[in-house]
Structures are given as C-alpha cells and as structure tokens.
From TrEMBL:
Ranges annotated as biased composition (Acidic residues): 188-200, 539-550, 585-601
Basic and acidic residues compositional bias, start-end: 574-584
Full protein name: Uncharacterized protein
Lineage: Eukaryota, Fungi, Dikarya, Ascomycota, Saccharomycotina
Lineage: superkingdom: Eukaryota
Pfam families (UniProt xref): DUF2408 (PF10303)
Length: 615
C-alpha cells in the first residue's frame, strides 16, 4: 500500500501507545496528550478539567495496559486479566461519576462530553474486543463493540436515505439478541447480589454503571433503527417491489464503479475493457428501463392502489425519492462512460474548471477514496482468512481508521462550497458507500466470532475441518472400506487425548469454549459411527445380491456333484477358486468338499470388518 497507517493482509495491525504529559495544569484545566489517536498513530492535545486529571491518568494507564495485551501476540489473552482490568475500569468510572456530581453540587457547569468520555469509549471498545477474543461473546460488555459498529451503519443509512428492509433486518435481529444478553446479565447480577451481601455498594454501583453505558448505547441504536424502519410505512405495498429494485440497481452500479478501477488496472487491452463496460452499462440501462415502465407516462409518477386520501402527501414524498433514484442511476451510468477514458474513478472531475481550493478538495477526496479502497480489500481478505489469522482485538485498529476517515469525510463535506457540491457529489457518494461496505465487513468479522477462547481456536479449527471432511465423505455415497476412516479417527483420537477429565487445559487454566469443543468432538464421533453403519448396510446388501446370483445360476448352468447334503455345483467350486486364488487348483479335490460344506461359506459376516476396527 502506498499510504501509512493501514495494514496489509499479511501484517498485524497495531495501535501506537501514547505519552501522558505530566507537566500540565492550570487552576481549572490541564492540557495533556491522550489516546485520541487515529490509525495513523498521531496524538492530539486535549483539555482535561483539573478535578478530573487524576481520573484521566488512571484511565490512560488502563488504556496502555490494554494496548500491551492487544499487541503482544506471544501470549494468549487470559480472561482473568480482562476481568481484573474491567473491574478496575468500572471503579474509575464510578469515581468519575461521583466527582462530577460533586462539581454539579458546587454549581459548576460541566462541559460534556470531554476527553475522559472519549477515552472511556476507546477503553470500552478494547475491553469488548478482549472479551470476544476470550470467547465470552454472550457476556454483556462484549456487545459494546457490536453496538458501536451498528450505530455507525445506521447513521450512514440515515445519511444516504436509500436502503431496503433487507438492509435493516439483520441489524434488528442483532439488536434483539444484544438486548436479551444485557437483560439476562442484569437479572443474573441481581440474583447474585441477593445471595451475597458482602460485596457492598461498590459492586452494585459498578454493575449500574455497566448497565447504564450499555443500555444508553442500545437505546440510541434502537431509536435510530425504529426511525429508519418507520420510513417504510410511507411505501405502499404494491410499490415496495419497484422501490427495492431501484435500491438494488443503484447498489449494483456503485459496486461496479468501485470494482472497475481494479479491473482496469489488471485488464489486457483497452478495447476489451471498453466492450465489457459497454455490455455492463447496457445491462444496467435495460434493468432501469423495465423499472421506468411502471411510471405513468402522462405525469411521470408511480401510482398505487393502496393509497388513501390521507396518504397522498406521503406518496408525493415517495415519488420524489423514486424519481430521484432513477435520475441518480442515469447519472452514475453516464459517469461510468466518462471515466472509461480516464485512469481513476474520480478522474472525470478533472475536466471541470475547478478553483485552486476545489482542486485541493478533489485531491483530499481522492486520497480518502483510495485509502478506503485499500482498507476494504484488506478486510475482505481478512474475512476469508479470519479463522487462522484474526485476533478480534485487531479490529480495534480498523475501527479507529474508519472513524478517522469518516471524520475527514464530514470535514470535507462542510468545506465544500455550494457551487462545487454537484461536482463532488459522486465522490461523496462513493466514499460514503465505501465506508458502509467497510463497516459492514467489520460487523461481519465481529459476528463471525465463535464462543471459543483464542487459546482453543487451533483445536476448534481442526475439529471444524474434520467435521466438514466427514460430512463431505458422507454426501458422496459414504465409504468404500474402513481404511478411508483411519486418518479421521487418528486425528479425532489425538484431539480427544488432549482432554484431561473431559476438559481442554492450556497453561494450567481452563479456557472458555469447553462446551463448544466437546459438542463438536462428539458430533464428529457420531458422524464416524454413522459412516460405519452405512458401510455395513451397503456390504450386507451387496452380499444378498451375490447370493441371489449364485442361486439363479444353479438351475441351468450348473452340474451337480455328489449326493444328499454334501452336494456342490461346478459354479460353487469355481467361486471358491476365485476367492482363494493363491492356492493351487489341486487343493480343491472332491475329497475335501465335505470339510468345507458345513461352514456356510456363502454368507459373509459383518464381523470380519468389525474385527479390524480398533478405533
């Protein structure tokens, strides 16, 4: 990559530590540097009230300790360490709460949020990711990072004003899950407090602070989600399919515009690139034309049969949105044709007569765009290799970078003049869309975390691989012989031997995720047993078919040898010769036939195979 601060798929993201300025302070405020850094590692001067300065220093020490744990990949993160730091963090927040109450009683007006609130958010983000890394995904503090990411996604959906029910549905499900986790944790703490009164008010106060922080974040997300969901009440039922098609088409065009840069740089000849682009644009135009056919040609409006007189005003606002979407899709397709003759996505702006100030803004827009493009590629690669390379605390660095890019984008939007707004509209749209994509990838990485500690992740990955192989073997008509199971049985036996008293112990501790691993191991053993049973049934059916063939051949083609119970046909003798082909033909004389007749040679017992199964 050509810029600093981002990480390649093969490197580990790290967050630079910071230094605390201890020489600061005036009578009322103190200036210091803190962890309010972005992914680039730069520090900013912050102002902390003098009465909160000791609290800020304590929070800074906790932040440093968490960064050391995050960046130290030579040692697994221990849940006991995280619990200890977390309780210290809650104690400091409790102290901060009491300090501010005292200042309010003195009549001092608090200027909130200040630096302590910002560092509190950073610490809680890191703690949340540490809990996820330890496998405590169902623990209330572990949901804080998910809530922060969901909040960003909802804000961006609200800003772009273009989304579908499908965009909101997964977020609504996740918010309901988080609410259940927070409520269940709250109920558990209340029951525990009733049983043990020796924890005093400190533990109760800490629990209240934790619940307040999480509930406030959750309520903000739910309120914004409800606001976005209520907007769909303005869309009549018969217009919902058309509206969703427009949104999907716009999304596909934006996706193609973003990926077109990489396709251009890797393609062979310009003629081939131009032909591919022309075909794609014609496809988009054909889809857009089908949607436009639903409009009334007389007034260019989408009419609905489900609208009453009271809803006419709502329908009018929807008409403006849908017509605006059609115009936007046409403009984006026009931009695609223009950019075909240029090297960069935003290079079509170069044909405009921009002022010097606007040219600087254009360069900044391009810089943010390319950095987001590279970060999206990194996150997409991480989504593929997450099982082997991802440590959930690594996501903190990506979140900080995205937060920085979002702040830079908003600053650029505010700096853009009204006259230049139209010229930079496409750049703003693409950057916002890329931010949404990146936050969506971070959200997927968070939600794909298994409730297993990182120290047990290698075992979990191996069990998942064995399970998938066994299921694939079962899908393709099962086993041909028991030897095909040997590698899987050896692997499962070696993993099973790692347990002590039914638990996987690492460095003398019992990491989280024992239930998940034991259930996965038992499932693998069950699949192995099912494969064995299927093999036995298959062999039994094959044995029956062979016996039917023998009986049918004896009526016409066989010559009976001997009398009474000790009779064998020529076909029977030939079958025995084929089975024991290593023996000489002289061993099968007529004198030896009675010795073999009593052994019921024609039935093949399943015990022959069971006797070889040592695993």
């Amino acid at each position: 990559m050509t810029y600093s601060g981002l990480v390649t798929p093969h490197s580990r993201p790290s967050t630079p530590s910071f230094a605390t300025n201890s020489n600061a302070a005036t009578a009322t405020t103190a200036t210091t540097t803190g962890p309010l850094n972005s992914g680039s590692g730069s520090t900013h001067k912050v102002i902390v009230p003098s009465y909160e300065k000791p609290i800020y220093e304590s929070l800074s020490q906790i932040y440093k300790a968490l960064l050391e744990l995050k960046n130290n990949r030579n040692k697994y993160i221990n849940s006991k360490q995280i619990y200890k730091i977390y309780h210290e963090f809650l104690d400091i927040l409790n102290e901060l709460k009491l300090t501010r109450k005292d200042e309010e009683l003195k009549g001092i007006t608090l200027n909130l949020p200040n630096t302590n609130d910002l560092i509190t958010d950073d610490i809680f983000q890191l703690l949340s990711l540490c809990f996820v890394t330890c496998g405590l995904t169902k623990f209330a503090p572990a949901t804080y990072s998910s809530l922060s990411t969901v909040m960003k996604l909802l804000n961006h959906l609200k800003e772009c004003k273009v989304y579908t029910v499908e965009d909101l549905a997964p977020i609504g499900i996740r918010l309901a899950e988080i609410r259940d986790i927070v409520i269940s944790t709250s109920n558990y703490e209340e029951d525990d407090d009733d049983e043990d009164d020796e924890e005093d008010a400190t533990r109760h106060s800490n629990h209240q602070i934790e619940e307040t922080l999480l509930r406030n974040k959750l309520i903000k997300c739910e309120t914004l989600y409800q606001e976005l969901e209520n907007n769909f009440k303005n869309v009549p039922k018969d217009l919902e399919p058309t509206y969703n098609k427009l949104i999907e088409l716009r999304k596909n065009i934006l996706n193609y515009m973003i990926s077109y840069k990489d396709e251009k740089s890797n393609a062979g000849k310009n003629l081939i690139k131009h032909e591919k682009l022309t075909v794609k644009i014609n496809q988009f135009k054909a889809e857009l034309k089908k949607i436009e056919q639903y409009r009334d040609e007389t007034d260019m409006k989408f009419h609905s049969n489900d609208v009453s007189d009271l809803d006419e005003q709502k329908l009018e606002s929807l008409q403006a949105i849908m017509n605006g979407l059609i115009d936007e899709c046409n403009n984006l397709l026009g931009d695609l044709l223009v950019q075909d003759d240029s090297e960069e996505i935003s290079s079509s702006l170069s044909s405009l007569n921009l002022s010097e100030e606007s040219s600087e803004l254009k360069a900044k827009y391009d810089s943010i765009y390319h950095q987001l493009q590279d970060l999206k590629l990194t996150l997409e690669n991480l989504l593929i290799t997450r099982r082997w390379t991802l440590r959930e605390t690594d996501l903190y660095s990506y979140q900080k970078q995205l937060k920085t890019f979002d702040e830079q984008r908003l600053n650029l939007v505010n700096q853009t003049n009204k006259d230049d707004t139209k010229a930079f509209k496409k750049s703003q749209l693409l950057i916002l869309f890329l931010l949404r994509r990146c936050y969506g990838l971070v959200y997927k990485l968070l939600e794909s975390s298994e409730p297993v500690s990182e120290s047990l992740t290698p075992i979990h990955n191996q069990l998942q691989t064995v399970k998938r192989c066994l299921l694939e073997l079962k899908r393709v008509d099962g086993l041909n012989n028991l030897k095909e199971l040997y590698p899987f049985q050896f692997k499962l036996a070696s993993l099973d031997n790692l347990r002590q008293d039914g638990k996987f112990i690492v460095d003398g501790s019992i990491p989280e995720g024992q239930g998940t691993l034991n259930a996965l191991l038992a499932e693998c053993f069950d699949i192995v047993q099912e494969l064995k049973i299927e093999l036995e049934e298959k062999e039994f059916e094959n044995g029956d078919e062979g016996e039917d063939d023998l009986t049918g051949g004896s009526f016409t083609n066989s010559k009976t040898i001997g009398n009474g119970n000790n009779e064998l046909t020529d076909d029977d003798v030939e079958i025995k010769r084929n089975r024991f082909h290593d023996f000489n033909e002289a061993d099968y004389d007529l004198d030896s036939e009675p010795d073999y007749d009593d052994d019921n040679d024609y039935s093949i017992s399943g015990s022959e195979y069971e006797g070889n199964d040592y695993y």
